[in-house]
Design brief:
- Strand 3 (172-178), helix 8 and strand 4 (208-214) form a beta-alpha-beta unit.
- Helices cover 41% and strands 14% of the residues.
- By secondary structure, the protein is of the alpha+beta class.
- One of its GO terms (molecular function) is metallopeptidase activity.
- Pfam families: RadC, UPF0758_N.
């Protein structure tokens, strides 16, 4: 016999639990069930939510941020309307995280850089190289993409990096890029590109203060590792 949500006690139903106690106490399955809203004649909405999460088990929950709507909609019991709801919720969460991070206006260390940049980069599937521009008091003037793709000297050219800094009259900058693998350990190429841009910063009188590599909920500061020069 299939147990439907309506068969559960009221205080055990996902939507009612959320309204009574807030979303923090709900599991991923229950949160997803709230978005899906209804099940089918054969399956409860909780069962469909479990199957969606199981479908992405190998790639992890973050996979939902990248999947096309057609792939999500193809899961039995989801369909196009529910897929659109899930993806809209994921994007709204991403934008809220970015907005919260951007409330930090002053950089005092790599942890501030990571806090500001991680919501933008953590779900990207390709490497993004960006520059964080600072004024004389280390207030953030902006975070700007320079290139997308592999981090190579031929792609990350000082001309493009410092053109943005000059346009914004930046006093200094911090280099950033993400590792889609989730491991922020710097590669030899990362170190070589950093050295090249540090040298260019000295010539341009726009010092490169750090290079922060973003991974999955982790980051590495090349300055902290003694790899900046």
């Amino acid at each position: 016999m299939t147990i439907m949500v309506r068969d559960l006690p009221v205080n055990e139903r996902p939507r009612e639990k959320l309204l009574a106690s807030g979303p923090d106490g709900l599991s991923n399955t229950e949160l997803l069930a709230v978005l899906l809203r209804t099940g089918t004649h054969e399956k409860s909405v909780l069962r469909i939510a479990e199957e969606v999460l199981a479908y992405y088990k190998e790639r992890g929950l973050v996979a939902i941020a990248h999947i096309p709507a057609s792939e999500l909609a193809a899961i039995h019991g989801v369909g196009q309307a529910k897929a659109a709801t899930i993806l809209a919720a994921v994007e709204l969460g991403r934008r809220l995280a970015i907005a919260e991070a951007e409330s930090a206006e002053v950089v005092s260390g790599p942890e501030d850089v990571a806090h500001f940049a991680m919501p933008r980069f953590r779900f990207e599937q390709r490497e993004h190289f960006a520059v964080m521009l600072l004024d004389t008091k280390n207030h953030i003037l902006g975070l700007h993409d320079v290139s997308v793709g592999s981090l190579q000297a031929s792609v990350v050219h000082p001309r493009e990096v410092f053109r943005t800094a000059v346009d914004y009259a930046a006093a200094s900058m911090i280099l950033l890029h993400n590792h889609p693998s989730g491991d922020p350990t710097p590669s030899r190429e990362d170190i070589a590109v950093t050295a090249r841009l540090v040298k260019a910063g000295k010539i341009m009188d726009i010092p490169v203060l750090d290079h922060v590599i973003i991974g999955r909920n982790r980051y590495v500061s090349l300055k902290d590792k003694g790899l900046l020069s």
